[in-house]
């Protein structure tokens, strides 16, 4: 919530005073006068109208503020990007609504410790019969109102609507608006002016800031924003301030809600624009008073954050490298504490996400520096993580399902706290589960068997993680078995050996064990003889049995005798039409050996983006994946390897660090590739079962 305590009459004063020379000091303000039908005409800053004590208009708009008891020459803050906005009265009394002019960026003049802009009143199209309120905001996006001044346009200049002073334009149209912002201007709270605060604007380059006590001896809090956490072209103003405890505890006020054991002292950190989400974790450090925490538990203290959306969370631990473990500073300070003291006052301007309150040490009891990382912010404090058990977590799943059945849902319930639900399949070869909503998961059945699932509610700052009892789904095969076509038409001996001439699937051949294993798993398997021409009717009408095939296994990559090519253009187009048919999958084996003439490139592999070459033998090093789950070893015999790095490929196995098998998608189809069909012919083995279950389920 923006504090409208920084009411600067800056813009208005600027207009009213511009007619004076640059060194003219206007007379003291008179009592406020009223615009007929409008609000009182006032100046609001650290020298007028009980305004923000850390914001001052400067000559020529007002008198020199250095004699004001609020003025502090050591506290200028030049790390902000304020704006000036002009509103007509009475509609713009609160410096809101549709502006007459602005917002206009106001540049910092570091050598003069001021911000300055030349206001072009002619471009603002002012009405001589209207009073205007010139407002200064801390930033363009959700900025805090720092101060304002009321002005009346007159011929050749403007008049301060409160004092009545007239100021001529410097060049017939412009008014110089100057003001000073000191540390704490954005965090000032008139209800508790003793609380310390600071502010800072950060962009894509990042930065860090530290807040110290008045003496500069104790570092209360620090924030460090890494480069890139704010996207290029964006700016975020961060406000870091102390805060009174906001929550009622059993024995004393607390920085955080809930029943955790907490340290004392609190901060609020916010951002402009409000509730800003950083692109990467931001480092937050707080100095807490650990004295209310039992000594045995003080080492367990962590930075915690709370907001109504995310609940209470413990931040991942990070060393407090800026404020130090004892809140006296890290190696950043060293012996240069005297130099750091004024720096620490304004450095506290860095990080201030929109809703952060952090527990820090405001007293002298047991100072302890804590650090953590967060991507967003809320109420923060120091607390000891709890280990309370949750209420039982429930899980509801369907009693039975078929392979590939759609719309299967796992529903979680119960538990305690704010942790999120997640789901786990204990039988990944039978089923998988993905989170679909806050309390449900989507079940995918892959093969016949018992699907075992659990639901877990994550830990939060109060409760430990909790997992449900196992839920079981009995999965049965569908009425229509998956049909597989073995394209051994270019096998080169890898499938049909030792058969020649006519081919009989019942007679011994090298691929028979794999085909029979697939049939035993419930698949319908047809095998193309060597030399067969590939066309659409084979894929969609069937070869040895009628019906379309869901899976095609291309076994071998040797050109047909006398053809000079592995496949014709028509055959490749037939393959492409198959792959673009929803529900289709392909297992492609490419045993490409350029040293074996003739050895033209494999056009089927090429349309998939795969380039194979070489001749390698050895055991395959398997990469963890549901497809390789349960497989101990696979022998690779004189197979080729993948020599390129195509986009979208997941490698599942290597030999001597060369990729030899993996998966990808092509259109709506799944593709498994391998450079040696012999590696799959050693059956039974889990790899074969897993590969064909994956192919059969489709994308």
Written description of the protein model:
The chain is mainly β and 699 residues long. An eight-stranded mixed sheet has the order 34-33-35-36-42-41-40-38, covered by helices on one side. Strands 3-2-6-7-8-9 form a six-stranded antiparallel sheet. The chain is elongated and about 110 Å long. The protein is built from eight helices and 42 strands.
How much of the polypeptide forms β-strand, as a percent range? 25-35%
The stretches of 5 or more residues where confidence is low (pLDDT under 50) are: 1-39, 331-364
- Report Rg: 37 Å
Q: Fraction of residues in helices?
A: under 10%
Class from helix and strand fractions: mainly beta
Strand segment tally: 42
Number of DSSP helices? 8
Coarse morphology: elongated
Mean pLDDT: 81
Describe the sheet with the most strands. 8 strands, mixed
Strand order of the largest sheet: 34-33-35-36-42-41-40-38
Report the end-to-end length measured between terminal Cα atoms. Answer: 48 Å
Summarize the model shown.
The protein is mainly β and 699 residues long. The protein has eight helices and 42 strands. The longest helix is centred in the last third of the chain and has 12 residues, at 686-697.
Topology summary:
Blueprint: H1 10-17, E1 55-57, E2 83-88, E3 101-105, E4 107-109, E5 114-120, H2 121-124, E6 132-137, E7 145-154, E8 157-160, E9 166-168, E10 174-181, E11 197-202, E12 207-212, E13 219-225, E14 236-243, E15 247-248, E16 253-254, E17 261-262, E18 266-272, E19 282-289, E20 302-307, E21 311-314, H3 337-347, E22 367-374, E23 379-384, E24 393-396, E25 400-402, E26 408-414, E27 421-425, E28 431-435, E29 440-445, E30 449-457, E31 466-467, E32 471-476, E33 483-487, H4 512-520, E34 524-527, H5 536-541, E35 551-554, H6 569-579, E36 585-589, H7 603-607, E37 612-619, E38 621-622, E39 635-642, E40 650-655, E41 658-666, E42 669-674, H8 686-697
Parallel strand pairs: 25-32, 33-34, 33-35, 35-36, 36-42
Antiparallel strand pairs: 1-10, 2-3, 2-6, 4-5, 5-10, 6-7, 7-8, 8-9, 11-14, 12-13, 13-19, 14-18, 15-16, 17-23, 19-22, 20-21, 20-23, 24-26, 26-29, 27-30, 28-29, 30-31, 30-32, 37-39, 38-40, 40-41, 41-42
